[in-house]
Amino acid sequence: MTAALAVAVLVGSPGAASASKDPYAAAERRAAAPCPQPLPPAVPPSPSECGAPSPGAAGLGDPYFEGAGNGGYDVAHYDVALAYAGAGTGSVDATVTVTATATQDLSAFDLDFRGPQITAVAVDGREARHRRAGRELVILPAAPIRAGRTFRVAVRYAGRPEPVGDRTLGSYGWVPSRDGAVVASEPDGASTWLPVNDHPRDKATYAFHITVPKDLRAVANGRPGPVRTGGATATYEWAEDAPMASYLATVAIGRFQVRRTEVAGVPVITAVDPAFRSAAKGLETTTVKVMKWAAPLFGPYPFATAGGIVDDPKLGYALETQERPIYGGFAPDEGFIVHEMAHQWFGDSVGLRVWSDIWLNEGFATYAEWLWRERTGKDSAAKIFKRYYAQPASSPIFSPPPGAPGAAKMFGFSVYVRGAMTLQALRDRVGDRAFFTILRTWTAQHRHSTATTQQFTALAERVSGQGLTPLFQAWLRSETKPLSW
Ligand code: ARG
Ligand code: ZN
């Protein structure tokens, strides 16, 4: 789902998105613009854009992840039917059905996929030719797909998915655990286990049907459905009904202690690996406390359910997987839980349109930790800011600038710390009233959608009535430690 694209199509005007500085807007306008009607022979339409159907682009052009995502269609829904054989082989047998709408006349299109062996691909029920090229799965439907048509792609595959191993990012994607597996895909690991349009700007809903050996369980995003048992297996249903970025999709398979409670009618479901049994109660109570605390500050909790998953792989990080964050191999302290819960508003509901805006996720979630410490009155975000500000200009908390960290440092200290400092600098400038109005307007305006830094700075200027370009320039973009703001 892409709101801007939907608007452009509805309005029917290729100029609808032209005010935006968004690097994707031009490509979208091109995709959304209707082909010209037959013209006088002197001005033939460009054959690459009109006339013959053409292949969708192999990437969305994100500067940090060139091949991530694909052009020519927009996904609405993933149906994931996956059977897991057990920790012995670690293998899966899966059929993923992708429902998408073409945004151009398509002769072929790609999905991102680096999972195991594909055994069949069908488009609208008809077998389709396909080939794999690196991380791309190229699909050639039996007949071209016209722009505006909704189509279904079913991909069946089997084997043992492998995680990505990265020197800075660690292990991510489908990660084997002692008794099963757990998925944590940020930034581009969803394709380790799913054929997917793997870019945060194409949110979609998900249905999971996960079959596991009877002694195991499967937990995923969203709302649980009935558990069906048959012979030696059990099938767990989960549904994520709010639009979700692919990197936030998760499944955790294994033995878990599951607890259920609720906050204001929102079910809170936590699942904790037996190795972290003693953390189970604390995860639940802190998650509940944070939800109650956050709503007045950030706006209503944005999803139908909440919770958390603690599993055993020593990932060394947590991930804000939608409705149910993953804590990878440690018992999370309050700060971690506050951080991942804050991401439900900042990162999950209000998602990224480009990866280079990652501070919109990490700076905000880190600032939420500071606000949490402020709530008791013993510390304050302003004091925490001052302690960081006292560090030397050469400290990694200051560089690279969080507004343009580069792919290699997108999860570096500066994105988290200087990103959060940016928000404190903004709060100091505009005052508490305007600052928290900005936060709540942000989460309301872009709820279940995506947004950009430029939209945030414009909103901050509008709400505060102040010119804030120098402040954001100094904090987000300047190569040096900001001197004044
Ligand atoms: N978003 C996560 C957090 O808030 C970080 C994920 C980093 N990804 C990785 N593969 N290490 O902490
Ligand atoms: Zn984070």
UniProtKB/TrEMBL annotation:
Which biological process terms from the Gene Ontology are attached to this UniProt entry?
Answer: proteolysis
Any idea which GO molecular function terms this record carries?
Answer: alanyl aminopeptidase activity; metallopeptidase activity; zinc ion binding
Q: Which Pfam families match?
A: Peptidase_M1, Peptidase_M1_N
Query: Which CDD domains does the UniProt record give?
Result: M1_APN_like
In terms of superkingdom, the source organism counts as: Bacteria
The residue ranges flagged as biased composition, category Low complexity, are 16-26
Reported EC number(s) for this entry are: 3.4.11.2
Q: Does the keyword Signal apply?
A: yes
- Protein's UniProt name: Aminopeptidase N
What are the leading ranks of the lineage?
A: Bacteria, Bacillati, Actinomycetota, Actinomycetes, Streptosporangiales
